[in-house]
Amino acid sequence: MANNETEQPIVRTHALTKQVNTGDQQLTILQNIDLNIHMGEAVAIIGASGSGKSTLLGLLAGLDLPTSGKVHLDEVDIFALDEDQRAALRGKILGFVFQSFQLLPALTALENVMLPLELMSVGNAEATARRLLDRVGLALRLHHHPKQLSGGEQQRVAIARAFATAPKLLLADEPTGNLDSATGIQIIELMFELNREHGTTLVLVTHDEALSKRCSRQLRMADGRLMQ
Amino acid sequence: MNHFLLSFRMLRRDWRAGELNVLVLALIIAISGLTTVGFFADRVGMALARESNQLLGADLLVMSSKPLPPHFAEEAEKLGLTISSLTKFPSMISNGDGNLLTEIKAVAEGYPLRGRVHVAGRSSSGANANPGIQVAEGIPVPGTIWADEKVMTRLDLKIGDVVDIGAIQLKVTELVVREPDHSVGFINMGARAIINTQDLADTELIQEGSRVSYQLLVAGDMKTVQQFRTWAQGRLAKNQKIEGIRDARPEIKAALERAEKFLSLAALVSVVLAAAAIALAVRRFTLRHLDGCAIMRSLGASQKQLLTMYVSYFITLGIIASGLGCLIGFAAQQILAHWLTDIVETALPWPTWWPAIHGLLVGLVLLVGFALPPVLNLRSVPALRVLRRDVGLPNAHSLWGYGAGLAALLLLFIWKAHDLKLGLYIVAGFVSAIVVFGSVGWLLIKLLSNLRHQAGGAWRYGLASLHRRAASSVLQAVALGLGLMALLVLTLIQDDLINDWNASLPPDAPNHFLVNIQADQLQPLEEFFQQYAMERPPLFPMIRGRLIKINGKNVSPQDYADDTHAERHIRREFNLSWTDELARDNSIVQGSWWKKDTRDTEMSIEADIAKTLRIKLGDELTFDIAGQHFSAKITSLRKVDWDSFRVNFFVVVPPGLLEDYPASYITSFYVPPSEIAMIHELVRMFPNILVVDVALVIGQVQQMIQQVSEAIKFVFIFTVLAGFAVLYAAIAATQDERIYEAAIFRTLGARREQLLRAWATEFAILGGLSGLFASAGASGLGYVIGKYALHLDYTFNPWIWVIGTSIGLTGVLVGGLLGTRAALSSPPLLTLRKIA
Question: pLDDT per residue over B67-80, tens digit each?
Fold first, then answer.
């Protein structure tokens, strides 16, 4: 967005590169990614499977380590931090929605949503969690375990969890990938609504062109490169 | 055929991918522990038998009062056994001034086959010329005699002096300090001397009617010796008998048998630990194979095909892993044996192959019994799992499946314990422990998890994890509890066993017996002890009588022709005694001890001899005592602790029945080696009293106990290692879930320390619970095994609760947290991808 040009971007990458060794061969998954994402933007990363989009998302969150290059989140060089400091930063400014929900099976819906709040020792975790679960339509499912919930319901719990800490940046990796199309549409609607309500910056990885059109900017990836 | 190929391919892939690490490692550690114990117990058992055979001077003796026919020696040589011979007889030795009745032993080349003769001062010219003790080289050369200290002192001899023996003169060349077969039997404890068998004829001492014992000494590997024994047993004439160490010394027999029982117990504990480790490890295996099975099912594989595939998969795996375990076990016991030679002094004999075969079989039985049942559930994985990952196994942990394993374990126990009673006790103990631990654990975990809503942070997540995995948490707590319980029981019993031995043979255990004290010597003897500022030891009356009737029916040696042991008892005279108090080392096993001042003609008989002679409680025995008949009814059977070296009698009656019969007295007491002059004085003052010196036997038994104790402690280390295998398997079993948890926690911004605290809660509860289980179980099972199987006075140790619980808690906590290090350090995305 043009009016954000002067502001510092919330995500800034420089020459981000990821290579993996597959036995005798070096495989380049990401190559020299330079990218700025500003506050309030909704960015879709699209591309065929294997183009490197999920790897990019993981690196943006500091869930993985790059071969070379830098990522600044909210002006912090995240790979200059240790794993614990990165985790703390994530807890403070990031929210996640995964394709396979990634809920803790041992915990109830309520406990899953409370988890990030408790990890950061936020007071009143339970009230916040209840409010968010109510918001995503699961007020009656608070004490169910993930196993007892449908896929759509699990993803709602995951979305409630993602917004629990009022993150500046929401990272979503194929959030509808494991859901049927009707449920998928509901989930997307819910996610965009909450995004608007919280004024969160959104980075969405998808291969769904229609979905990507709902974002303010589309970044297309192929063979580990960004095609602007 | 395709299934087999497929299963081999799958096995190879899983093996390479490290999927089998936990299962294989658990099996390898368990089997190597088991075979180490097995090999080692085998070798120590053989070494102990051989060691104790030093008390015989051979592995086996064939004895006769007439020269032995040559076929015994010929057969032994034919079997490849080492032989030697000796002739023992009493004779006077004189040095011109005095005579001494001495037991002469004429030995042949090779004597002794087991143990050594220790001598002092070949070169010394006088008895006080600082004689160094050394192992004798060979036997006395013809023309020489080796004499013991009694001969030297009483005849006032020096090395180099010449003595008369029968028709010849021999030169004294060595002072015998110790000879291996000294201690066999209590009859021949007087002065002793050794000569060469080549001089025997020249002495002209062996005449018709002389009291001579001809002995053939046999030694070799145990199996061949046993073979020879069986062969010879059938060819014994009336005046011939066979003696191995166990026939000769009841107290050694008792100690050896208990040591053997304990070692097999230690091996059994490894088996339990293995079972627990496998039961834990297989859980992860099953979970990891869910997808593969679902895919195969969706591709049309039948349940039967999957069954065939997994059975061949596991049998192959079992053979490979157990084989590796056996190899490691063999190497480990080799190191152990090497290390222990410093303690045991003698080279350990080469082990047999049995422990390896046991190991292989046990490995297969354990794998088939404990791993296969839950894995077989895999065949009923719904193919739908291909589409919906949350569809899994309906009941992956049906306890029913372990029924087969438990049954297999029961058979193993009975087989390995060589003792139905011990095996049954242990299995009953473990089965009830599983049931009680399981239900209590289940209840506690349910209760605790209800508390989690009141608890904050780390506690909540720890409790939540325990609760969600309730089934496997209970399984883990039970398995860990059982493992720890086994270790605790072993520790308790080990201590009791060693303490019991030490207590029964304290440093001041009686080392001298006085036999044949006459009634009119009681007073002078009391004064004699007073002179040496010693209290007169308790004297026991002793009356010799021959058993002639049981329930009024005459008995003769022929009635026991099938049992030489029983026959000998009938042929010989019994020593009868009277007392109104049950001795400390005796316990009533049947019937009851008489009331004080009883007027009935009662009798108490030792339980083993009663069994040998087929005598029951209530039978009436008649003895011929110096021509008079004495009858009494048996009102109690006693167990006698022969390890104690105290005076004990097979047959005892209340006071007032035998006083009119001719009695002599017997006693035992301790004399420190420095006071040995007192014994010489006693012999001089009371020449008719037979002094029996058992200091050497006691020394040897004490040394043996020392060695067995060391062996037991060492074997215990391996059991502890097997315990670690269980811990490892328990922690590895939930490793995948923990790595996943860690990834999510990290993604959501958890610090290391927060994650660690959640896990610590979980591990602490799990460990504390298993520790509590273990303490409770160990207290009960230790009591039962100690009391009923090993016949020990079990001492209840309240500390076991503290120790058990804290070991469980810290062990699982530390082990668990160490085991999760990998989960903490891997980048979250990798994990989430792999699992999603």
Answer: 888 989 999 999 99
Question: Among candidates B277, B248, B222, B196, which has minimal Cα distance to B27?
Answer: B277
Reported ipTM: 0.77
Residue A27 resides in a domain? no
| Residue A187 domain flag | yes
Is there a contact between A96 and B748 if contact means CB atoms under 8 Å apart? yes
Report the pLDDT averaged over residues B37-50: 69
For residue B223, the tally of other CB atoms under 10 A from its CB is 10
B487-538 confidence digits (pLDDT tens): 888 777 777 777 776 766 677 778 888 877 888 888 898 889 888 888 878 8
Domain harbouring A94, CATH code: 3.40.50.300
- Rounded to an integer, the average pLDDT of B6-10 is 78
Q: Is any Cβ of chain A less than 8 angstroms from the Cβ of B750?
A: yes
The per-residue pLDDT for A217 is: 93
**Residue A224 backbone phi and psi in degrees, to 5:** 80, 10
Confirm whether A18 is domain-assigned.
no
Pairing of strands B690-693, B512-517: antiparallel
Q: Pick from A94, A59, A200: which is nearest to A68 by CA?
A: A59
Chain B residues within an 8 Å CB radius of A102: 743-744, 747, 832, 836
Residue B765: C-alpha distances to residues B280, B474, B751, B759, B819 (Å): 18, 11, 22, 10, 17
Question: Taking a C-beta distance cutoff of 8 angstroms, is the pair B811, B767 a contact?
Answer: yes
Contact A106 B827 (CB under 8 A): no
Q: What distance in Å separates residue A215's CA from the closest CA in chain B?
A: 24
Q: What secondary structure letter does DSSP report for B786?
A: I
Could you tell me which chain A residue has the CA closest to the CA of B753?
A: A84
3-class secondary structure per residue, B744-778: HHHHCCCCHHHHHHHHHHHHHHHHHHHHHHHHHHH
pLDDT in tens, A133-144: 999 999 999 999
User: Domains in chain A: how many in total?
Assistant: 1
CB contact under 8 A, A102 and B836: yes
Interface of A to B at Cβ within 8 Å reads: 54, 58, 61, 63-65, 83-84, 87-92, 94, 96, 98-100, 102-107, 111, 115-116, 118-120, 145, 147, 161, 165
Q: Do A83 and B752 touch (CB under 8 A)?
A: yes
CB contact under 8 A, B457 and A118: yes
- Do B122 and B96 form a contact (C-beta atoms < 8 A)? no
Asked if A106 lies within 8 A of B469 by C-beta distance, the reply is yes
Q: What is the pLDDT of residue B124?
A: 42
Whole-angstrom Cα distance, residue B636 to residue B153? 47
B752: chain A residues, CB-CB within 8 Å: 83-84, 87
Min CA distance, B49 vs chain A (Å)?
A: 58
Dist. CA B410–CA B322, nearest whole Å: 20
| CA proximity to B278, closest of B467, B34, B17, B488 | B34
Domain that holds residue A142: 40-65+79-227
Partners of B753 on chain A (C-beta within 8 Å) are: 84
β-strands B144-148, B99-107: how paired? unpaired
Q: Which of A102, A143, A173, A180 should one mutate to test binding to chain B, selecting the residue with the greatest count of B CBs within 10 A?
A: A102
Measured CA distances, B546 to A146, B359, B572 (Å): 86, 51, 7
Quick one: pLDDT at residue B305? 77
State whether A63 and B828 contact (CB < 8 Å). Answer: yes
Provide the pLDDT confidence category of residue B612 given band limits of 50, 70 and 90.
confident
Nearest CA to A133 among A190, A90, A57, A186?
A190
Among A186, A194, A203, A117, which residue's Cα sits nearest to residue A159? A194
Q: Assess if residue A7 is contained within a domain.
A: no
Residue ranges with strand state E in B551-642: 553-554, 574-578, 586-591, 602-606, 620-625, 628-640
The pLDDT, as a whole number, for residue A66 is 92
Instruction: Work out whether strand A201-206 and strand A169-173 pair parallel, antiparallel, or are unpaired.
Output: parallel
